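[Solved] Which block belongs to which protein?

Original post:
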Amino acid sequence: MDTNGIEKKPTGLEGDPDLQFLLQGGDLLKVLSPSWKKTRFLQLQEDCKTMYRKSKKPFKSHQTFPIDDISSVRKGRQSEGLKKYTEEQIEGRCFSIVFKSHRKNLDLIASSEEEAKQWVRGLEKLMSNVNNLSRQQTREHWIFNCLKKADKDKDDKLNLSEVKRFLRLINIEMDDSYADMLFQKCDKSKSGYLSGQEIKELYDLLRQRVEIDVIYQEYAKTTGFMSAQNLLEFLMKEQRERVTLDHANRIIDKYEPDEPVKQKKLLSKDGFLMYLQCPETSILNQEHKEVYQDMQQPLSHYFISSSHNTYLLEDQLKGPSSTEAYIRALLKGCRCVELDCWDGSDDEPVIYHGYTLTSKILFKDAIQAIKDYAFKTSSYPVILSLENHCSVEQQAVMARHLSTILGSALVTAPLGDGMPTDFPSPEELKGKFLIKGKRLNKLEASFTSEAAGDETDVTEEEESGDETEEDHKKKSKKKLKLAKELSDMVIYCKSVHFNGFEDAQKNLSFYEMSSFKEGKAMKLAKESANAYIHHNVDKLSRVYPAGSRTDSSNYNPVPLWNAGCQIVALNFQTSCSEMDINQGRFLVNGKSGYILKPAFMRNPASAFDPITSSPGDWCQRKTLHVMVISAQQLPKVNQKKSSIVDPLVKVEIYGVPEDGAVKETEAVDNNGFNPSWNESFQFGVSVPELALVRFVIEDYDSSSSNEFVAQYTLPFTSLKMGYRHVPLLNKNGDLIPSAGLFVHIMVLNAK
């Protein structure tokens, strides 16, 4: 379609042989089982953003998937399916396409090694290109695709009904008279259809950002343009940036698209819009995207991103177990994964949810996958939380696999010389694995002649049912025989039963830690928050979901972070607001999976209690002013052609109970393309260091509950002030490239 100036192809890849190869497409074998290997034709579409997949079966529907839905392309037999169902000799012909969503991997075999390399190279180039597109380019690509879909008869022209179809595709339901008026305005040739420059004009009219024009006009005081001095005034007054005139000049040099305007050191309206839409000016403080916190403190001084029953892809009763679930969690920055270990056949331990119909995976395969992906997102330590139900013989096999596969990365002795008195820091443990599990004796014993001897019995700890003290007494009689080889690998995370804060203070060493079911932990966090905080200064606490959550739902992690609990384990496979909050908590500090607790939660004498909100240095009262201005290119909730969203925005504050709040805008009827609200809210925040801000967009429904459209959560202390675009994530936590929310933020000290 000729749209004179709307960019269609990925920049920098024109004429690339790998791109040409993908555009031509080819046959691949799709692998589902040893006997199920079917030919599939795969081809890149003309938009260079969509892959087309065709079955050889007659009447079988063809499928497409967007390039930006691909998480990674893995060369060789790396996936569970390819390892299990293909022979080693075809390693070089195999590759897997892994998706960000819950879509299953595509395990594929090419006809030759060279062809496999070309598929992988081409797809990786495309992914890199899509990821590097500016928000402006991404939106242009999206609009171009919608224009192509609207042009039903493929004649590169749009008649009035095709224009209305296009408007619905971009999520606008427009009154007929307004659509007619828009059409007539663009149909300069009075031909009854739009083509070429006229389509470009329609696009420009829709792309117009009136709210940004208003801001621009206020500061464009130099012959209708912004000078560097005007821009500096905007940056200092509106954005609260402490910058110089040199910085303003650099912005003009980087973002002004019109060369003659740039030569005069001026910024046009288009340049100003491009600057406001770039990631560096988003609502998230860019300095917090890197590791910016002190990583030299003891491990117990950090919140640690943690997963429960990590091996599960779905529910807790009959869903599949998979090494892929470990890979997904680790790539999301998770630093504590759980392994439920049981005796398997052929002397090989397996992982699954015991006494259920969930499928099984080999322990050694899970450890290999963890080793391969542990440090791709974060280089900081990974804790392997073992729930051990194996016989002594298979525990010895587990120990052997841990030692052989993880090698020197596995911590098998305390760091430094002599018996430690505190945890090492995440910095000291970079690239290392820690085992959390039962131990036959105290760690101190390994520094004396008092070894474990022949003792092999420890009390079995299980994560099942809502355990009472009586249940624990019964269970105390149930003994687990423990292999010395596995016991000796437990150094800094020895699992013990919790008998109260006083007992822990008196009798437990720093490395002895307890696991709490959510109900017990929530009760302690509510009734004994200050004691819990003191306990968590020098000891680790792990919290996990109740056994009744068979659907893999999650609990709210915030009250437990408020009580200083470090390892608050959630079901990572479940899309929900609790996981959004978890992702928001660990969004910063380089997505390292470690967030330094505030100073008042690391002090053993702290009087802080989140429930009572008593005065202290943690109380730094702020007033947050949020103006929700507009949104751009919201995704459709329902893919039916006639379905258009009626968006509203909720602004939610999470933190100490006093700070919890939700406020929402009115709904905008039938406009997901460029809805506008201009509504202002005010929030009081008493403990900003524990607060999170969540922006949620929902599709309003008067007859039932609203449907989720998109969200973004970030720490209160990472907010940038002024006019900011908020990136938007889908329900799986992945970025929606073309969508955004535009807000104005102001944080003031409360009087």
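(Second protein starts here: sequence line, then its structure tokens.)
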Amino acid sequence: MASFTHLLLLLFVSFLSSPFVSFAAAQAAKTFIFRVDGGSMPSVFPTHYHWYSSEFAQRSSILHVYHTVFHGFSAVVTPDEADNLRNHPAVLAVFEDRRRELHTTRSPQFLGLQNQKGLWSDSNYGSDVIIGVFDTGIWPERRSFSDLNLGPIPKRWRGVCQSGARFGPRNCNRKIVGARFFAKGQQAAVIGGINKTVEFISPRDADGHGTHTASTAAGRHAFRASMSGYASGIAKGVAPKARIAAYKVCWKDSGCLDSDILAAFDAAVVDGVDVISISIGGGDGITSPYYLDPIAIGSYGAASKGIFVSSSAGNEGPNGMSVTNLAPWVTTVGAGTIDRNFPADAILGDGHRLRGVSLYAGVPLNGKMFPVVYPGKAGMSSASLCMENTLDPRQVRGKIVICDRGSSPRVAKGLVVKKAGGVGMILANGASNGEGLVGDAHLIPACAVGSNEGDRIKAYASTHPNPIASIDFRGTIVGIKPAPVVASFSGRGPNGLNPEILKPDLIAPGVNILAAWSDAVGPTGLPSDPRKTEFNILSGTSMACPHVSGAAALLKSAHPDWSPAAIRSAMMTTTSLVDNSNRSLIDESTGKSATPYDFGSGHLDLGRAMDPGLVYDITNDDYITFLCSIGYGPKTIQVITRTPVRCPTTRKPSPGNLNYPSITAMFPTSRRGPLSKTIVRTATNVGQPEVVYRARIESPRGVTITVKPPRLVFSSAVKRRSYAITVTVDPRIVVLGETGAAFGSVTWFDGGKHVVRSPVVVTQLDPM
């Protein structure tokens, strides 16, 4: 019994029908995950616990058994059983399962990748690096997943091609080296189980999202692609020769359950992936501490084994503190635009032409004017949102309808208009979305417009005696300026758990991204959409995340000895802070200058990341020290790390001293007078051995930043140098701005091509 003395009990809510509730008719059963630490774990290990009785075995159902990133199992039991186990001294934590949501080409060139030279050439296009994609599965027949001219599957690969509905071993190849699906959590949580009429109980993708993200990261290139004529060009992923392992953890119409995601982490590490791409996050607005977050726990287990984990920052921007996936061992990716757009103008009867966007590919209006109506004129919010069964056909038949964005899918609003007899739709942003626009493959003539344009159109429709309008669809335009721009929906900082760690880490292309698509669903994803398309155009941090996953594959191929932290550092310290107009990055939602709370370190620039000069590396011990510094005790940390740990007993470490590529100096709000804080970083030279770097400081008003020493001298014998950054704030004159922070930077340069920049965030915020 000695080897089973520490348990983690994670409570996952699954309201079930019989037979699981038959033993407690008054209670709905729930799914628990039991954590076991130390020793080997027999496949039937639950019977080894002294609290695990035969009665418990008979009335519970084992769902998953975890061996690698997490030791334990998940099972369905009643709340009474949960209460009994919660009080057991061996149980460290209990929490509910969360249903996660997905965070829903030209972009490789926009990142600085060029054929036959640079990172693509130096990394052999990511050949032999294996990317594990946690998503909705994959549609293997797409040309993006051809294995033509690829070498043999890497010998280290230990994964499988799991059979299921319309999926078997022949659907894997030298490109898709493995595929699994994880459905036990979903089957337990959904009454009646997964709907097999709209889903495949297999790795096959019924949603499209997983096919899109996989091909964004690693789709093959050298063939023409478009979506109904939009975004025509040569299709290619970021790492075209990288291998793909698909882990289906998300299910159409029912999301993604933590118990299944944790099982996928467990399998992927054993299978031998090099990179994990997970465009998934919390959809309930709750930020859980790391020890209660299975994505954080699973990703730590992966990162501790040398696997790079890329995650999406979430689509709840532009609200502050909306960024998700906050663990410092995960690379968190926000979204920016690229220099391609799909303009569609709303033309009003008074002669005004207002700019919008659309991916509508049906019969155009050809300049014909139609009456235009705003259903929200009478103050009916549900009608203004064009929700199901809210439009009066007598008011909208034969007209273009103005619909407010929000509360239902954008494309679904157009379908509501069509059912009510409308001929077109103008989708208007609200104030929260600002001027941020994304194109949609609407089923009726429709375009999206920003908040200001929407207000003008509504005013015209409400005041003109005979308002009329039309929509002009203008196709694809390349070379848009400015670009990139921080997408309005992209999750924003500060970090809601530990503000000392800046999140997001960086941004990458995530707006109007063309990539492969499932044949099981139309481009809108609506059940009523009969269209089929090989490619689709989507927007979201879900699309930005696989760009960084593919980038990590390229860097891993070029530098196989680099750790996940070193790869992230190379990306973060070489980012771009200017757009293609050579001006500072702007925030799409406001049109004003963006800040590190919006873009992290900046926009991914792979032309420079290949050779960053210096990197900020982080070890597993460093992460443990960080967890100690934020007040976690050894048993709590063991929930994350699986192994026993010790925290310093003499002097408590500072979370700001984690060797992160960005720097945050946090000062209490209660103190008055000048305040100072010293933060330490250690740089590792990965460039030429004999080199000297000098510091360049950018200090915001009211803040003094100094660096000691101001020079870092490296040699063949000395590859690591530490330095101290002292930040001094005068509260009387510092200007923290709307975000509650001021921003500067520390940049190291060697007089040649290496410029290693770290943003510095200065804020007055009491520790959480």
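Accepted answer:
You had them paired correctly. Confirming on the second one: The two ends are 38 Å apart (CA to CA).
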